[in-house]
Amino acid sequence: MKKELPMIQLNTGAKMPQIGLGTWKADKGKVGEAVQYALEEAGYRHIDCAAIYENETEIGEALSGVFSHGSVKREDVFITSKLWNTEHDPTRVRYACEKTLKDLQLDYLDLYLMHWRIAQNDTGEIIDIPFEETWQAMEMLVETGLVRAIGVSNFTEDMLTSLLERVAIVPAMNQVEMHPYLPQESLRAFCHEKNIHITAYSPLGRPGQSNEDDPFPQLIAHPTVLTIADTHGKTPAQVLLRFGIDRGIVVIPKSTIPSRIAENINAISFTLSSGEIVQLLGLEIPYRYVEPSGWWGIPYFS
User: Torsions phi, psi of 62, nearest 5?
Assistant: First the structure.
């Protein structure tokens, strides 16, 4: 029997599993099978999606199949998706959400996030649409029942402060890059104060990714991580995921390999000591594996 999944409670009152299957960069032709395995075999009850990942149609086919089998019910699975930058015009927000729902073959989303604060037109040019106007259109999705909760992604403290001054619904979630090289303690404390939960993407530091011109520091191979893993008889990946879970963070590791999917969720089977958390926090460089400034030619996080 699988251990009960650790949960957090959103400011809406809804429960959300602290570990989910991420689908960013999940290969087409594999992601559907990964979702099916995660839900039916590995015990996941949380899937993280986004329109820009361009795999929601395949995920939707997998979800439809899983729910039709009857062993896993729709109401028992927490599903997140995200509004892309080209859909920030308030008149396009509902259409974008409905497109995602159609692709995922769902009647509602548990959580819908503004993927970035940047607004773009269809050719990729940055345009001036205040993100609070986009947010107000997202609030209407809650009122109409298309989504159960709304949140943001890649928002800094300053961005959140600006948003909170202008909106009726406080974001339920802020999804950001977070791991021992980038623990973002100040942002975590700020969000906790405002009753906004955090989801960590790239919680493993993107193992397996490489860049010959600027090699990524391999967090998963850091001696401190390896030592803690050895102490617990766990894998380095499980240690990094548990680091997030023990800090009250939701983690969404991505994999399409069944053995890795099963390994990742087994991070729920142990806990780290407070001393080990401190050791991992001490690894802060800080280092971002996802640095978007070059995408749009403007500083984003500075």
Answer: -65, -45
- Give the 3-state secondary structure of residue 195: coil
Respond yes or no: is residue 300 known to be catalytic. no
Q: Which tens digits make up the pLDDT trace of 232-259?
A: 999 999 999 999 999 999 999 999 999 9
pLDDT band at 1 (very low <50, low <70, confident <90, very high): very low
The model carries a pTM of 0.96
b (16+ CB within 10 A) / e for 179-207: bbbbbbeebbebbeeeebbbbbbbbbbbb
The CA-based dihedral angle spanning residues 13, 19, 21, 22, taken in that order and rounded to the nearest 10 degrees = 80
- Structural domains of the chain sorted by starting position, each given as residue range(s) with its CATH number in brackets: 14-289 (3.20.20.100)
Token pair recorded at residue 275: 């001393």
Average pLDDT over residues 121-141: 96
Catalytic residue among 37, 53, 181, 289: 53
Q: Give the Cα separation of 87 and 109 in Å (integer).
A: 17
Tokens for 214, please give them.
């600027």
38 vs 2, residue with greater confidence: 38
- How far is 45 from 39, CA to CA, in rounded Å? 6
